[in-house]
Amino acid sequence: MKDTSPVPGLSLATLAGMPDHIDRPRYDRRDLSPGIVHIGLGNFHRAHQAWFLHRLMQRGEALDWAILGAGVRPYDAAMREKLRAQDCLTTLIELAPDSRAAEIIGPMIDYLPIEDGHGALIRAMADPAIRIVSLTVTEGGYFIDGATGGFDVNHPEIQHDAANPGAPKTAFGAMIAALEMRRAANVPPFTAMSCDNLQGNGRILRNLVVGLARLSDPELARWIDTEGAFPNSMVDCIVPATGPGELALAREMGVADAVPVPHENFRQWVIEDSFVMGRPDWNTAGATFSEDVHPYEMMKIRVLNAGHQVVANAGVLLGVETIADCLSHPLIKALFRKVERTEIAPYAAPVPGMTPEAYVDLVEHRFANPAIRDTTRRVAFDGSSRHPGFVLPILRDALAASGPIDGLMLVEALWARMCAGTCEDGTVIEPNDPAWDHLVPIAIRAKDSPQVWLQETGLYGALATDARVVRAFEHWLTLIWRDGVPVALESYIGSP
């Protein structure tokens, strides 16, 4: 007989009545006080950084490091409303290949208002109790100039914040305004910690914050640069988006959570131990502190993040819905294995306990997890940030080493073909990049003139004039348009 008993909505008031199989906070939320502001409060942060903090709190530790959530875009208001309605609690659903488990975590105690000028966010970050400001604002959120690799000083929002430091539009402008208040009050700066998939994310964040501050207050910029801390970090956990299926799964497991978070049964966090005003002991919860994060982040970003781009665009074009499905598709799986082993792993260094080749095997196993419904559309989103960030650095290293590049250029050609806006079967691809309207006409013109795509200097820069790059890209894009994606994949897989 089907169980028709009501499923409790998630809140502090209902925690005690949750099913026994759902773990929940053993700490009293009234004992928590804020120490962290986190900007960009999506699924990944809640499944990753917030979970590590939750583990400490479960042992009665780090109770003065609770999180204040924050957003800087109007669409963040919907998430704020949903989370505050359930007392900022989150249900995490771990999806292993052969099992699943749910737990409720509660290290976030409030979500700041979304406001023009970010007054509440600035005041919160200026509070001496806040010792860390962390961010997950996506790779494309750091205003990186594709041609120079520095921050895009000419971006309209950067220009606005430089001219209006007291009423900023960006998260970074808000951080600078708060840091100015701390300096005026003789309070040390908070540690600014990026948790996004960028090589040298701490360095990139430092350059952006200091560079933006310099545009309006050079003395403040010097203080931030000298007194502040911007640790590099590597984060790793596959966290799909939440949709109707995940909402139904949470209810099936016994809790009505408006924003549950599915995630794989793997997490890794490597952090440079550079903090101004202390930090939680995340290492005792499973994180790794290292003096050199670079090898970890290079291996992960190249093997996993670039690996996602290897399979996602082919998957979208062939109508393959998820990454796990891609690893069950003979051609896409073979593409992944060959590109990873011959053109990506050679340009990643080993880390303690793991070689690049072993990490490729680990990532393949994780990608193939059928319980993780991570869509190719989600993974292919924002290729204009992800290809320059994940794929093209490998290509540059391969060219410098005179190594093979055919697979990497096939990946670029698949992306260009996807940006033409139709699948192999003619199905329209809905906009899937912040620059979609700009990319689509270029991708369509590239059907007859492939070099048009490479001439997007904001993406490829000097690569567009490299003879090997041009030759390989023209070959693959022409073959894809003429004979189709499967033929192109078969040609690459079967080549020496």
Automatic annotation (TrEMBL):
Pfam families: Mannitol_dh, Mannitol_dh_C. Residues 292-478 form the Mannitol dehydrogenase C-terminal domain. Keywords: Oxidoreductase. It comes from the Bacteria. The keyword Oxidoreductase applies. Residues 35-283 form the Mannitol dehydrogenase N-terminal domain. The keyword Kinase does not apply. This is Mannitol dehydrogenase family protein. It comes from Ruegeria spongiae.
